[in-house]
Each structure stands twice: as C-alpha cells, then as structure tokens.
Design brief:
This protein has one domain: Rossmann fold (3-Layer(aba) Sandwich). The protein has ten helices and eight strands. The protein is α/β, with parallel strands linked by helices and 260 residues long. The protein starts with 7 loop residues before the first strand and ends in an 11-residue tail after the last helix. Helices cover 37% and strands 14% of the residues. The structure holds adenosine-5'-triphosphate (ATP) and magnesium ion.
Length: 260
C-alpha cells in the first residue's frame, strides 16, 4: 500500500501567533494549484482557524463532524467533508464551535490524513502556535515541518527553544521560513544574527516587499494572493521564492533563486 501513497504532507507551524502561517499556507496552496497539483489544506488551528473563512466558503461539516462520523460509523465519502475552492485546492475546515476542538480524537485525525495521502499530491496543515497534543502529534506524523518566524527577538528566542528540543529528540525534518512580509518594518536583526539566535539555518525568506497592502480586501473577497492577476510579475522575487519553497518541500528539485 505504501507505494500507492502520492502525497507529501507539510505542517506549517510556529512558536508565536500572528507570524503569517495561515496566509502563507493559502499562498503555498495557490502555488501548487498553479502548477496543477491537487492540494488539500487541513485547518488544524482547531480553536481559531480561518482558512474556510479566508476562502469565503460557508460549510456545515468540519474536521469535527468528520471525526464524529468516523467514530459513529456513519462516515461516507471523503469528498462530502471537503470544501472545493477550485479544481486543485480543497479544504477541510476547523470546527465552527471552538468547544468542539477538545472533543476531536487524534486517532481520527490520523485516519483522515492517511486517507488524504491517497487522494492529493500535497497536504498542507495549518496550525496554531501551541505545543498542544495535536500539534505534537502532527510534528511526528507529517513529512515536513515548516517553522515560520518573524524578525522579532521574542519570536526568535521561543523558536530557538523548540528547535533545540527537536534536535535533542532527533526530529530533523524541519525547515525555517523567515517571513518579513507581514511585518515589513521589523528589520532589527541581520540574517547572521537571526541564524545565531535560532542556532539553526534559515532555509527560506519572504521579503518585506511581499507586504500586500490590500490583503484585507483580497481576504474579504476570498481571493488567494498567489492566484491574483499579475502576481508573478509584480512580486517576482517573492513569487519565485514561494515557487522554490513549494518545489523544495515536495522534493521536486528546483534551481530557482530564492532559497537561502
Ligand atoms: N504578505 C502579507 N502582506 C500583508 N499582510 C499580511 C501578509 N501575510 C500576513 N499578513 C497579515 O498578518 C496577520 C497575521 O497573518 P496570519 O493570520 O496568516 O498569521 P498566523 O501566524 O496564521 O496567526 P495565528 O497564529 O493567529 O494563526 C493577518 O492580519 C494577515 O492579514
Ligand atoms: Mg493562523
């Protein structure tokens, strides 16, 4: 069976909130859609996920209903629990009621991800920054972990702690993305400083020129930045970096500039 698995799974996480994980997840999904890869976004920011909202997709079934239906033996087709954004991007939403988050049994999340492995080219999992049981489970389960960090002392220091824990327990399937795009004026530390604080490499960077001024308008319209008109031309350098991240994390190889 293992040979039939076609997905690569990527966990987008951080040790601080508000570093741009969810917008980055959507942008990466947009990149995969552009290169005609089927991508599933699973919103496992269970108490405050925004993916379905940002895609402007109303829904009745979330990961909570999905796991309840598996538990009660009334689960039907996987597709009936998935929101379709376009021909390539699907999404499983987080629970509408945050109180349902704690009722979700990780065994069913595990089963859902295992099923998705056979249906999609890429699975992107958006999380929150808590070291909760679900996030620890995901760090073990998922092929690639992407830590999103900002140029911010507290953010970098908290990431250093987690990265050193991961190193100690032998988890090394992680990459670090320095996201300068949502905080364009934060530039106190040089790249040398940042690597020094993290005690880790910075694998990818999104620059402050990728700060999207009208992002709120795009979000309200349910638009994904990387699928908007002319984006590759206007934000050439960062679009190339995003393309490179997509290729690199799915081991498709790329010599495109943008990787640090
Ligand atoms: N490239 C960008 N340009 C402009 N604003 C951005 C960009 N990326 C993210 N933002 C804004 O930064 C804020 C935080 O982004 P986002 O919600 O993606 O962070 P997060 O890490 O997922 O947060 P949380 O930890 O709360 O889930 C949002 O208001 C978002 O609109
Ligand atoms: Mg988020």
């Amino acid at each position: 069976m293992a040979s039939l698995r076609k997905s690569k799974s990527i966990l987008i996480t951080s040790t601080k909130g508000g570093v741009g994980k969810s917008i980055f997840t959507l942008n990466l999904a947009g990149i995969f859609s552009t290169i005609e890869k089927k991508v599933l976004i699973i919103d496992l920011d269970l108490t405050s996920g925004i993916i379905a909202m940002a895609l402007n997709k109303p829904y009745n079934k979330s990961i909570y209903e999905m796991s309840e239906d598996i538990k009660n033996n009334v689960f039907d087709e996987f597709e009936n629990y998935v929101l379709k954004y376009n021909n390539y991007i699907d999404c499983i939403a987080c629970p509408k009621d945050p109180r349902d988050a704690s009722k979700i049994d990780l065994r069913y999340v595990d089963m859902i991800i295992n099923q998705a492995y056979f249906k999609y080219d890429v699975i992107l999992i958006d999380t929150n920054h808590n070291l909760s049981p679900i996030n620890l489970f995901l760090m073990d389960k998922i092929d690639e972990i992407l830590f999103v960090v900002n140029n911010d002392p507290l953010n970098l220091k908290s990431n250093r702690s987690l990265i050193s824990i991961l190193n100690n327990i032998g988890i090394n399937n992680y990459h670090v993305l320095l996201n300068n795009s949502n905080n364009p004026y934060k530039d106190y530390f040089s790249m040398y400083d940042i690597k020094n604080i993290l005690q880790a490499n910075v694998d990818y960077t999104l620059s402050n020129t990728f700060y999207i001024e009208n992002i709120d308008k795009l979000i309200m319209a349910g638009d994904i930045v990387t699928l908007s008109n002319d984006i590759a031309r206007i934000y050439n350098k960062d679009y190339t970096s995003l393309m490179n991240i997509a290729m690199d994390l799915t081991n498709q190889g790329s010599d495109i500039d943008g990787k640090k």
